[in-house]
Amino acid sequence: MARGNDVQLGGITDLNLLADIKPGFVDALEVVTYVDRLRKVLKTLNALRLGSRESSSPASPYTDIVARWRIVHSFRWTIVDGTHGAPDRLLLSVNFDGGWEPYMRVIWDQLGSTLDLMLCHTEGYTLSRECSFETYARWVRAHEVSADFLFIESGRSVSDAEYLAKLEAAQRGRANELEFNRLRAPASGETQPLPTGEKERFAMAARGLLPLAGLFT
Predict the structure, then answer these.
(1) Per DSSP, what are the bridge partners of residue 89?
(2) Of the candidates 197, 164, 161, 154, which has an alpha carbon nearest to the alpha carbon of residue 67?
(3) What are phi and psi of 123, to 5 degrees?
(4) Per-residue confidence band for 172, with pLDDT thresholds at 50, 70 and 90
(5) Cβ atoms 9, 154 nearer than 8 A
(6) Which residue stretches of the chain are H helix?
(7) Which among 1, 94, 162, 170 is least surrounded, fewest beta carbons within 10 Å?
């Protein structure tokens, strides 16, 4: 597979993908264009994310489908409106740890169905479950737009940041030396075990209801 012009800094890779959104209407019961449906999907996901991260309640005990792989620093979806007859386009910008191909293998194998929700609105895209990794990666390469300048504040990996946050919390809680030594960064894909106590289970279920408010705003 041909290599693209990957933009990296301090072990962090920057990827930008720009693809044409399908014209016309979705083949569905509701009369809606591809771009309008995509806007609704992105607004709903953003509302869910805001409800999960910016609530005054304690941090959510649920494992984020992207965060659990401890590789992605940030990503954003943007709909670029077409002008003068040009098609509307979808822009994906993401920063992640490590090289391009290892990241893409995680995306295709573990997160493909999540990205399908957005990318199925674009021209020439094949659902991740319906194509090989080579075909999937080839489509991404064909739609990449390399950054000309990249600024990243720190070279800390996602796992580094998670470990340091745990270390700070332990220090604030005055943990002993043994507890410090037991601190570690979870492996990629590792999740926390579900609570076993009745009160903890109820609290987790109640906490999960808060982000759902985003569906009705």
Answers:
(1) 20, 80
(2) 161
(3) -70, 135
(4) confident
(5) no
(6) 34-53, 100-106, 112-119, 133-142, 158-172, 177-182, 198-209
(7) 1
Instruction: Pick left, alpha or beta for residue 124 (phi over 0 → left; psi -120 to 50 → alpha; otherwise beta).
Output: left
DSSP run (H or E) holding 80: strand 72-80
* Long-range CB contacts (within 8 A, 24+) of 133-141: 133/104, 133/105, 133/108, 133/109, 134/1, 136/104, 136/108, 136/112, 137/1, 137/101, 137/104, 137/108, 138/1, 140/17, 140/104, 141/1, 141/2, 141/4
> What is the model's pLDDT at position 28?
85
Report the DSSP beta bridge partners of residue 33.
Answer: 25
Instruction: Give the Cα separation of 12 and 95 in Å (integer).
Output: 7
Nearest to 70 by CA among 155, 158, 190, 154: 158
The per-residue pLDDT for 1 is 39
Judged by DSSP in three states, 85 sits in coil
